[in-house]
Write a structure and sequence with these properties.
single chain; mainly beta; 11 strands
Length: about 130
Amino acid sequence: QVQLVESGGGLVQAGESLNLSCTASGRDFSTRAMGWFRVAPGKEREFVASISWSGEYTYYGDSVKDRFTVSRDNTRNSLYLQMNNLKPEDTAVYHCAAELSATAEYMAKMTLPPDYWGQGTQVTVSS
């Protein structure tokens, strides 16, 4: 059974930082694109960031560019999201995602749900 388990969320004040982690089990994603999406209350899924299997290519949503950094450790089958200068509008449930065939670039534009999707971790930013 494939599982993506996120951790690292919490309640912070505006301007602070958080580092999210995602650990995959049940399948090796070291040769697959992975990424982060978020869902805010009353809103649709929003692309946050994606990374190619090698880590060479990264893509970001416009609202998080220059503040968030996505990275991965293929030896640990893990994905990370360093979030700096958090804003109240970043409040959402953050989900780790993995794709079997799509590229990291495609993950930034896809409308269909990802092949694999974790339960998510809550990030709340107070003003």
